[in-house]
Structure of ABC-2 type transport system ATP-binding protein:
Amino acid sequence: MEKYILETKGLTHHFGKQPILTRLDLRVPPGSIFGFLGPNGAGKTTTLRLILGLLRKQEGTVLFSGRELSGHRVDVLSKVGTLIEQPSLYAHLSGTENLQIYRRIYGASAARVGEVLELVGLAGDAARKKAGRYSLGMKQRLAIAIALLPRPELLILDEPTNGLDPGGIVEMRELLQRLNRDMGVTVLVSSHLLAEVEKLVTHVGIINRGRLVFQGTLEGLKMLQNGPAGWMIETEDPRLGLGLLTPHFNASVSGERGLVLNITTREEAAAANRLLVQAGLPVYQLYQQQNNLETLFMELTHAAV
Ligand SMILES: Nc1ncnc2c1ncn2[C@@H]1O[C@H](COP(=O)(O)OP(=O)(O)OP(=O)(O)O)[C@@H](O)[C@H]1O
C-alpha cells in the first residue's frame, strides 16, 4: 500500500502577484482523520480546490495513492468524495429523491441510496422530507450521503461544521468517526478551529499564510505543548525582580510587568513570592500558565509570518 492516500509536493499558487500557497507538502496517511487547520484566509480552500482539480494547478504535484490526477482523472476522482462548496441540493425534492438523482450520475445501485441514508442518520421520516426544509446540519449530512454514493476511499470536506450549532457539530464529528472506523474511509477535513476538530482527528496539518507550520499526528502536536508550563508573576518592576530571583530560580522577564518562572511546585512559587515581597516589590498576580493546545495553535499561526 502507498504510504499516503493523498500527497502534495511543492504545491505553490499565486492569485495575480499575490503568493497564496508556498511549497506545500501535505501528507495524508490512509485510514487517518486528517485535520487541515489554519486561520481564515490561510489557504485551505485554495489547497483543496487545487487537489481536486477545481482550480488550475500552477506549480507542484498532487498524488492520490501515488498517482497523479492528470491522465487518470475519472478513475482517481471516483474514489474521492467531496464537500467543498455549498452542497447543490434540489430543495423541492426529498432526501431520497436527491440521492436517486445523484446515484444515476455516479452509477450506484438503487440499494445504495438506503445504505447512505442510514449511514448519515437520515433514514426514515427525514428521508421523505423536502431538502429545502432541512436544517443546515441535515443538508450537510445529505451532501455527505451524496459524496458516499460511489463508496469513496477518501472524503475531503471543507469546513463541514461551519454554521452548525453545537449539537450539529457533535453529530458531524460522530458521523465522520463512524465512517472512518466502520467503513475505513480516510477523512481530510479543514477547519479554522482546532477545538472543533481536536476530538475528531488523528493527524493534523497546520497552515498559516500559505505555508505548512506543523504536520504530524495529534499526539505529536500535543508533545509540542508538553514543555514546562511555567508560572507567571505580575509585579511592579520585573527587572528588579529578576535580579532577586535568578540566584534561586530560572526566570525571565515577559512584557512590562511579567516574570516567567521555570518552576514546577507550589512551594517554589510561594518561595519566589516571598523573595519579592520581602524585598518590597509588590506582587499583583501569581499563576501557573495554561499551556493548552489552543494556545499552541495560536502561537503557531501567529508566529510564522
Ligand atoms: N479567486 C481568488 N482570487 C484572488 N484571491 C483569492 C481567490 N480565492 C482566494 N483568494 C485569496 O487567497 C487567500 C486564501 O484563501 P482561502 O479561501 O484558500 O483561505 P482559507 O484558509 O480557506 O480561509 P477561509 O476559512 O476564510 O475560507 C485569501 O487571502 C483569499 O482572499
